[in-house]
Amino acid sequence: MRPSACLSRPLAFGTTLAIFLSSVSARNFTSAPSPNIDLSGLGRVALAGDFDSISLYTYQGQTQNANFANGSQYLFSQYPDGSFQSLALADAFITTMCPFVSHGELQGVVVGGNFTSLGGVPAQGIALWNANTTKITPLDGLSGSVSAVYCDDESSTVYVGGTFTGGNSTNAIAWVSGWTNLPFAGFNGPVTSITKSSNGSIIFGGSFDGLGNTTTPTNKDVQVINLSAGNITSGASTSTSGFSDPRNIICQTGDDTAGNTWLLEDNTPGFWRGS
Length: 275
Known about the structure:
By secondary structure, the chain is an all-beta fold.
């Protein structure tokens, strides 16, 4: 049976973000034992202190809002009652996650960002968190940051995008049991989103205008057009022999002589058109 898993929204705490995971079927939660304290003889009990909220401790590992260093983010799991358990601390931003299912079995949750460590494990921008063991496995081989991941259950493949180099690819690559180059060697700019279309195609979005294994013109508004095979027309051409054919001026490098020049009739408006 295919395991169920889902990722939930970022949760903001002050100037930092905590990213949390909803419950995964493979993960078990252990209820905390009730404290053996009898308060029935005290009547109403008040709690005083320097706090602005309170919650019941119902699950082992349940945590209050963690104290974050600037720029760090936590990976959280959410308990059924809405409280949280901290799973791993990243030393920078966590930007994307997806559950990686390979051949019908949940392998873990792929976590991407611009961190260099997750849960104390060195990891350059991407790692796999195991929902059963809570073990973190770095997916070594990338240099840079990860902005988008898409876990494709049908092909048991994780598509990764961002600003990085890896293998023979730039800014986009795939993970199966190791890094696999895409047929087009990535893109020439950052990839910020990845999804799958209804026809099964993988769609990449970002700030790019070319593929990683092709060159693009420096001036984006200029395009070379082959006029020699085009339809060339003109109006009000001169009647002088050797100067009336509008095709005379296509790709000519010689002197402005007969056969190399096109002229209009004197004092007459006209046109030259290529299509």
